[in-house]
User: Fold this.
Amino acid sequence: MQQDTALAPTHDAHAVAAPDAHAAHGAHGAHDEAASIQNRKFAVWLFLSSETMLFMVLITAYVFVRFNPAHAAEHEILNIPQTSLSSFLLLASSFLVVRALDAVKRDNQVKFQRSLFLTLLLGLGFLGMQYLEYSHMGHEGVTLNSGPFGTTFFALTGFHGFHVIIGVIWLFVIFNQSFSGKYNSKNNIGIEVFGLYWHFVDVVWVFIFTIVYLIGPLH
Assistant:
């Protein structure tokens, strides 16, 4: 009898310690998950910083050519109204990405998928209009190898277009994954990371559009 009584407190101590251990494990897991999310965001920001430097080099090279009066005639070939429309499509797609992230955080899957689909369409629309512009310039004799203007123009806008293509492919994958319920209010870091990339592409285009299409060469 005395032995049973002496063992009782030990048994109770184990019963109390077990929930504490589970709680500590859960807190540790949450901490690791938060750290992983922050690391992924940092990696994306680091990548975008490196891409910013590359774009700055290409923009600088274009500016040296762009402000040369000898290339004024080539600039006149650019279709500014058409590019303004394609710019609007790309900027509107950024709003839809924000809308998609907000929807998935609220577990509104229908709104989330619709926003992704519309973003995909606008991204494809931008690429389609860029293809039309390139075709028009080719018919006018301005190509990647036609001279300094063509080389810097196609290098800069083509490098940006390549980023849009990557974003569209990435978005297509996310859109397909959305049907399996992969993203929800508790798991949406993938959408947030994609949003950082897509907004970066849009912001860069604002600078490119202003410098390439709206600012004329010096006379």
